[in-house]
Amino acid sequence: MTKLGVGIIGCGNISSAYLRLAPMFRDIEVRGVADINLQAAEAQGAAFGVTAYDVNGLLGADDIDIVVNLTIPAAHFEVTRQILQAGKHAYSEKPLVLTLEEGEELRALAAEKGLRVGSAPDTFLGGTHQQARAMIDDGGVGRVVAGTCHVMSHGIEMWHPNPDFFFQPGAGPMLDIGPYYVTNLIQLLGPVKRVAALASAATPTRTITSEPRNGEVIPVDTPTNIHALLEFEQGATITLSTSWDVWAHRHANMELYGTEGSLFVPDPNFFGGDLEVAGTDGEIRGVEAWDHPFGRVNEDRGTANYRTAGLADMAQGILQGRAHRCSLELAIHAVDVMTSVLRSGEEGAFVNLSTTCERPEALGPGAAANLLA
Q1: CA-CA distance, 10 to 79, in Å (whole number)?
Q2: How far, in Å, CA of 312 to CA of 324, rounded?
Q3: How far apart are CA 327 and CA 133, in angstroms?
Q4: Is the same domain home to 190 and 335?
Q5: Which range, of 115-129, 160-174, 202-216, averages the lowest pLDDT?
Q6: Strands (E), 136-273
Q7: Are residues 79 and 162 in the same domain?
Q8: 92-142 pLDDT, tens digit each
Q9: Within this chain, do residues 115 and 178 fall inside the same structural domain, yes or no?
Q10: Considering its fold, how many domains does the chain have in total?
């Protein structure tokens, strides 16, 4: 069986999830890791039994076909550009890039080289979110006309050892957590037409309370409280609130309101969760879950985690000559949505999007099972 060799650049926190979960999938095999800190690469290589490289060594390795970019967001564009220039397919953590111009440059380079680019998040491939899509497509709540999304907490300086970059331009809650919500909305409803937003930051600094930097004060240079309105091409208007200035709330993660009912979708930061629906009688009831491979609980904390599914789907797409679902076009449109939201927050006006995309192909239970080893 043909497997595509995978290399990983960036050996921070998220790399362990990729290294741990990649063996679940049929068409990929992680063969190397790299980091600007060679000791970090060597530690992950030893822990997971793969070769540790410096970055140039990994990019030049003959047995690596796809390189996964797990660097910090500010480095995503440059590292992905280097991957493509080295003749490798690229798959990036979210967000793919920080500006639309960077996305268009990667699109042109990938086309010139005849290479694929994919990007997280891939949680929308989860069983719950694919079932929600099927219900919408089958008219289960009529035509979706409105909705609300909330992802709000008090930030990450309480637990992350090095939270600095989360509060700098290119991060904040919209670009850090927003990709999960925006991408899922696009796969459920299609592309976005225009956006409006208000944005602010509650405080100019944050105090780290995690170790080893407990007590250190860091600057806040990006909005931490963003409330947006998204108008979709199909006509729905969805409010999206992302904030790191909220201690507690009672809002649901995602609610979609249709002409014949309402659909309650769990947190798109995860693959699984419980779907609920209400019909014209207004009674909310649970939805019997699909037996979908990417909805099954596989972690001790009771969650479904199938990160690298998007990478595996891209690899299979390369091998089969079909489009992959976590596509460059989808990622660029999501970046366009999020950066337009931030721009609207600065300018105080609606912003029309300059990109669009097709909804990614649905991933039913059978197609999902076909990705697994």
Answers
A1: 10
A2: 9
A3: 18
A4: yes
A5: 160-174
A6: 144-152, 192-200, 205-207, 217-219, 225-232, 237-243, 254-258, 261-265
A7: no
A8: 999 999 999 999 999 999 999 999 999 999 999 999 999 999 999 999 999
A9: no
A10: 2
Q: Which of 63, 88, 119 is the last residue of a domain?
A: 119
In a domain, 136, yes or no: yes
Helix residue ranges, H only, 51-189: 55-59, 73-85, 100-113, 127-137, 172-176, 178-189
Q: What three-state secondary structure class fits 66?
A: strand
Which range marks the domain in which residue 176 is found? 127-301+328-358
337, 235: one domain: yes
pLDDT tens sequence across 6-29: 999 999 989 999 999 999 999 999
CA–CA–CA angle 373, 268, 125 (5° rounding) = 30
Choose among 164, 153, 129: nearest CA to 362. Answer: 129
Query: Do residues 100 and 176 both lie within one domain?
Result: no
Record the tokens describing residue 241, joined without a space: 């609130």
Place of tokens 């309480």: 158
| Tokens linked to 272 | 């699984």
Task: Report d(CA 84, CA 81) in Å as an integer.
Answer: 5
User: Tokens in use for 234?
Assistant: 């199909």
CA 120, 51, 162, 125: dihedral to nearest 10 degrees? 20
Same domain membership, residue 265 and residue 240 = yes
With contact defined as beta carbons under 8 Å apart, do 126 and 294 qualify?
Answer: yes
List pLDDT tens digits, range 150-163. Answer: 999 998 999 998 89
**C-alpha to C-alpha distances, 228 to 175, 194, 258, 351, nearest whole angstrom:** 13, 11, 20, 11
334 Rama sector, left if φ>0, alpha if ψ -120 to 50, beta otherwise: alpha
Q: Quick check: helix, strand or coil at residue 237?
A: strand
Tokens representing 54 are 């410096």
C-alpha 141/C-alpha 118 separation (Å) is 31
Q: What are the tokens at 230?
A: 């998204």
Which amino acid type is present at position 9? Answer: I
